[in-house]
DNA sequence: AATCGACAAATTGCATACATATGGCGGCTT
DNA sequence: AAGCCGCCATATGTATGCAATTTGTCGATT
């Protein structure tokens, strides 16, 4: 009711508003959210606020406090890196299982088409990149990869593990404001997209897994670059708004 | 409030009763659960029933239906195998990261102690095994393994992925009613416990990962054994009560 | 037989009031 | 100064009634 039908319920409103606030970093990690205050603020009764907070717990943005109530989860730099590592492991598993078990014609056709369209995001010049198109198709690529082996269990787990902003495959893609060396990584990433496809087609499970893992490591490099260059994190990378400011790496 | 303090709330009661029913296979997969009927049945109001169902969704036993309400999730044989595969991958990752990153003294001491105590479950004769002790310590071993790298993200994800009964490391351990060939696998498993420890100590990440994955595959062998021998599943393996009866493998 | 519309029943969404539990603060004692 | 206790304010747990939505049934029409 809240989402599937698009019905405009109070719970849905509260859920979307709270999610947006959390994702924008409006609540420091560890903040306790109080039903009554939020109900007033959002102008609904406690019931939809509770429901919304319960759902945000499912989404991984809140956790339940020990004597009832909800806390905003806190994340640090290590969580970001581990989330990226985990995504690599899970997507690597999807690639391996796809290679080992085979892929249906329909899914392979879809996957190939996405890779082909990703190619069209690159023009003649090294700076000639359709960033928006790439970001959209990159998201599609990763969803399709997760679905390739036809395992609902794995697909579900990948969806869960990549739900938080900084865990998403699209979290650290460069855009037009960023340095060109940073942007050139897109071309390398697209090459990896191709290689993963090839490894799967050739039934090379270990290779597919290794490639997909390395592919996810690009996100780690991008994160490290951002922190190493003291870039204003919240400004440059919305995905990191959730991450505590005191948790930057020291090197 | 529901769990941390042990307070005896209606929500807690409803949660435990519904969980137990679901885990015992009382509701076929896909069954819709109705608030009003359950509230009457459990003799509480709708509010704690809703809360309990929301939590069971977090636990992975229910899913939200499209226009509100909740459905009991259904699982088939492939889900069992994929859950085992996923556990192997995640525990393998824990082993690898432990080897790569190192382990604190406290955690390593704890881990060694568990392995040592697992050894004491085996007596002089091949049939002389303390099954209950083994099962208890096996669970501890796997929890400790998940915690070794000191990554809250990974530990949390492993906990989630192993939450369902058939995904648990202890799901398919043999007990005293089962065949001796089946039981002998415990000795092999314990050898693997040792080898994983050794690989971590030696900083052999790839080896640790491969061993932990293979270790998880024992569960797959056990499942396949159960099905291949037409054993009454619900009777022999409570962990499989959740799995649909029409989804047995055909080979 | 299939489809559509109307209506009733059932279910979920929600608000509100009351009950219960928790946490913080102040005062007192050691 | 530290610890303990009591009190009160606040937050959560819960029940219940009403509103809104969804589902199912039945009859009419093609």
From TrEMBL, chains A, B:
Which InterPro entries does the annotation name? Answer: GntR_C, TF_FadR/GntR_C, Tscrpt_reg_HTH_GntR, WH-like_DNA-bd_sf, WH_DNA-bd_sf
Protein's name in the database: GntR family transcriptional regulator
Recorded hits in SUPFAM superfamilies, A to Z, give: GntR ligand-binding domain-like, Winged helix' DNA-binding domain
Supply the CDD domains for this chain: WHTH_GntR (cd07377)
The record's listing under PANTHER family reads: TRANSCRIPTIONAL REGULATOR, GNTR FAMILY, TRANSCRIPTIONAL REGULATORY PROTEIN
Q: Does the keyword DNA-binding apply?
A: yes
Record GO terms (molecular function): DNA binding; DNA-binding transcription factor activity
Keyword Plastid on entry: no
